[in-house]
Amino acid sequence: MKTDNKKNTNKKNVRNKKAGGRKTSAAPGGGSGKKSTGKPAASPSPPKKNPGPDRSRSIGRVAATTSTGSKLRLVPGNAAGGKSSRSPKNTGSLGSLQNTGRRKRLIAAGVLFFLLLTAAGVLFYISRHYHVETIYVDGNVHYTNEEIIEMVTSEKLGDNSLYLSLKYKNKGIKGIPFIEKMDVKVLAPDTIKIVVYEKAVAGYVEYLDKYMYFDKDGTVVEASDTKTAGIPQVTGIPFDQVVLYEPLPVENQEVFKEILYMTQILSKYEISADKIYFDDAYEMTLYFGDVRVKLGNDDNVEEKISRLKQILPAAEGKKGVFRMENYAGSGSNVSFEQDK
After folding, report:
1. pLDDT per residue over 69-79, tens digit each?
2. What is the C-alpha to C-alpha distance for residues 256 and 221, in angstroms, rounded to an integer?
3. 324 φ/ψ sector (left φ>0, alpha ψ -120 to 50, else beta)
4. DSSP 3-state assignment of 235?
5. Separation between Cα atoms, residue 172 and residue 156, nearest integer Å
6. Residue 264 to residues 86, 108, 267, Cα–Cα distance (Å)
7. Distances from the Cα of 44 to the Cαs of 15, 21, 66, 79, 292, in angstroms?
8. What is the phi/psi pair of residue 99, to 5°?
9. Start-end ranges of CATH 3.10.20 in the chain?
10. How many angstroms separate the CA atoms of 147 and 141, rounded?
11. Considering only CA atoms, which of 139, 144, 132, 124 is closest in space to residue 187?
12. DSSP letters of 186-222?
């Protein structure tokens, strides 16, 4: 055993010399080392390798156990005394990032919830505060107030004054005969005013079982299956065809201005004619049921209609014709000829 120990000691001393380390104490029975105390020699610490000037990366120092065949344990370190170039994962920083991300998500969720809650509150306030209770209607001729109100408020949110004012502000309505557009004005949160702008209709002609309504320029603006009270039928004007949104093809386009003027005068004096007839000379005859009124040319039209308002009730239930061709606003140049 002494011989083996001596050999092992000599081998270790040789390694220490090559590495530039100190000499270790010799085992009992060795040369000039200390005398043996009778105790087995302690295993010397392994020498440190010099990484050399050209090696900057970190190395581990190896700690060996005294038992033969034991496993080595790598202890992180740096022979040059510097920091390791490969740092271990910073678990603290990762956890901090995770906490920051979680905090941001919570803040975003809180902001979203606040916005949704605010929007719900605003909608609730608008639905309650702008609920329509009172409605005024102005400008309607062909439709009653109830019909106009039904057109405006029958849809979804039709009882909300703010919604209606935004929807119908200077906006035309399609699909409703004689209506050009309607405005809704909010007079109070619970009160609105519907202003109706109707198309300027002068009269209508019958064509292919339809009532074709035209304006002051003779342009056909509506085609309907029903008659509208207060608008006279115009006859005696020859035409070949009628096209919607195009002028009636007649020779004398000035006749439409006469028709419009006549309808305005009749409306002023609250007289509603059933029909306006033009003969070959473009002289007018008005029809009121079985009573006819021959006006002649367009001279003194308003004076004739003013006089007609006074005498027309006397012909109720009769059949005949009023002759007013020569009436100029005064005198007795008016006669009634009863049909035989």
Report:
1. 444 444 444 44
2. 14
3. alpha
4. strand
5. 19
6. 99, 66, 5
7. 12, 11, 9, 19, 143
8. -65, -40
9. 134-198
10. 11
11. 132
12. EEETTEEEEEEEE----EEEEETTEEEEE-TTSBEEE
pLDDT of residue 75: 46
Tokens of 63: 């700690």
pLDDT digit string (tens) for 112-162?
988 998 888 877 777 777 889 999 999 988 889 999 999 888 888 888 888
∠ CA 89-91-95, nearest 5°, is: 140
CATH (residue range 203-338): 3.40.50
Query: CATH for 134-198?
Result: 3.10.20
Rounded distance between C-alpha atoms, residue 286 and residue 295, angstroms: 8
Backbone angles phi, psi at 205, to 5 degrees: -125, 155
Q: How many helices (H) and strands (E) does the chain have?
A: 6, 15
- For the residues of 20-87, what is the DSSP string, one character each? T-PPPPPPTT-SSSPPP-SSPPPPPPPPPP---TT--S--PEEE--SSTTPPPEEE---TTSS--SSP
**CA-based nearest residue to 295, from 272, 264, 326:** 326
pLDDT averaged over every residue in the chain: 76
Instruction: Give the separation between CA 86 and CA 57, rounded to whole angstroms.
Output: 9
